[in-house]
Amino acid sequence: MQWFDALIQGVLLGGMYAQYALGMALMFGVMKIVNVSHGDLVILLSLVGISLAASLGLGPFTVMAALVPLAVGLGWLLQRTILNRVVGDDPLPSLIATFGLSLALQNLMMQIWSANSRSLPGGGIESRSIQIGGIYIGLLPVIVLVFAIALTWGLDMMLKRTRFGRALRAAASDVEAASMTGINPRTVYASATAIAVGILGFAAVFQSLRSTVAPADGGAQLIYAFEAVIIGGMGSVWGAFLGAMVLGVAQAVGFRIDPGLGVLAGHIVFLLVLATRPQGLFGRA
Amino acid sequence: MTFVSMMPPQVQIRRQTASGRIALALFVLAVIGLAAMPWWAKTGTIRMVLELCCYVAVAQMWNLLAGYAGLVSVGQQAFIGAAGYALFVLAQTFGVNPFLAVFLSLLVPLVLAVPCYLLLHRLDGPYFAIGTWVVAEVFRLVASNLSWVNAGAGMSLSVMKDYSAFQRNIAMSLFCALLILVSIGGSYRFLRSRFGLALIAMRDNPVAAASQGVNVRRLRFMIYVAAAVGCGLVGAVYFMAQLRINPPSAFDSMWSNIAIFIVMVGGIASIEGVLIGTLIYFVADRYFGEYGASYFVVLGVMTVLVALYARTGIWGMISARWDAPWFPIRRHLVLERNKP
Lengths: 285, 340
Known about the structure:
The structure holds two protein chains of two kinds.
Chain A: H1 2-31, H2 38-56, H3 60-86, H4 91-113, E1 129-132, E2 135-138, H5 139-161, H6 163-173, H7 175-180, H8 185-210, H9 218-232, H10 237-257, H11 262-276
Antiparallel strand pairs in A: 1-2
Helix pairs in contact in A: 1-5, 1-8, 1-9, 1-10, 2-3, 2-4, 2-8, 2-9, 3-4, 3-8, 5-6, 5-8, 6-8, 9-10, 9-11, 10-11
Chain B: E1 11-14, H1 18-35, H2 43-68, H3 77-93, H4 98-104, H5 107-120, H6 125-145, E2 155-156, H7 165-192, H8 194-204, H9 206-211, H10 216-242, E3 244-245, H11 247-250, H12 254-266, H13 271-288, H14 293-309, H15 313-321, E4 332-335
Helix pairs in contact in B: 1-7, 2-7, 2-10, 2-12, 2-13, 3-4, 3-5, 3-6, 3-10, 5-10, 7-8, 7-10, 12-13, 12-14, 12-15, 13-15
């Protein structure tokens, strides 16, 4: 029963990680770049949300309605001002630029919000739970998982069915051929990053409701997103989603064995996948 | 029957330049000066110089990885901490002479780097970088959970009490000289060798280099292991001087921040850039370090600006204007007139 409980909690935790991982999978898939400041953006949006809620007295879902458009704008701006200049075959410029951005963002947040941990008051939903057959399931983690599934499904449908999704996939597979057919890669890239960071707007609200956030936490979120993408297998959004589930379960089971082992168990599963199935559990070889 | 005599043209390969000779003389003087520090510097100065030498060495290792081998790492602190811990375990737990233990502890990053690389090289360019960070986190978490390295509480190097302050100063000074000699001198020698030629070919275009017979995979592996050992030496020396080690300090990502800042601002893929970058970082740290977070905001923004607008860094701008390398690695072909 204890292990079944760990499995359930792990899947719910995976719902949180999936929301970080989707954006990373999308950006890598389209532009072959990794935004090192991915996790710091989650923290920045969380802290902005917490300040908004505190000063205007907004509820968590009103904060979400404000944060998501803000996140989309932030992503667009990030692509237009920084990332469009560093996209290319050489991975170094994009890594260094976003690495510097991460360092600057982290310390800027430290200046504005101090190093303290904060959280978003959820008006009670964060502590409500449902009991099913002796297992308590938090209402909030279930909402997080439902949002994660909806976001993954929505992103997948958008990529498969819409005109914009086709443009994204075309730019991902061959940017020069895509631009010959009338696609403007810069606009496509900016939209991809806007979506990727926009999803972080949801993640930011849930992260700050579920637990606390502090300016230095961004690195861990980046690593979890990355591990989920690699475990699941690069190239598909459902892969990233399932990778997040595996990572969540690994951490929850590790945490049951010993509280010091939770995060480490996730890393070890990641390294095992890398050793035995480098294309990812759900990726095609 | 007629013979066409094809006299090969009289050529000479010139590899050293006037600026290079001056720099080499200064380099030798600097290494001697570092080794002789106990006779001209106070303990505080020696410790400061030691820190500076550690920055130079870590930055040069990162430069070899990112600038030449195309392996961007943000996790070299894994090997810094691993060797630091190895030193403490050898010297404190097993009673090995600490100065000898510095060298023995290099075996740990050497052995650990091999499986790390075999796993990480499967990751694509930018993912490789995050992968190295995960490895560093794994090392930190393992150290935080291992009871025989005293878990999260860390260890102290109290055996250093057996040595007088002067003896410790001599050791620190010799290690400073060694760090510079190995990281800068060693890299320079390496870059001038046939491996260096292969490495530069690989830096310019890995595919073309492979077609010319350069074993790109083996060379990358060699550089990764060498950089791990180099960072290990920094870790062992740095934490020997610190006398304390714990998981957050041993596996601090600050090392990566500093190495990246130094190399990118100074000028990637050049030894001169590392020296310039270290000097800038060190001066900035002395004067602005007290401003804490806002100082790091400036460092971060500078790194972004360099990546966007000046990828070759300061040395790139200087060498575009004046062709006077301090550590020349190019080969100039000098044609000689045929003498009658």
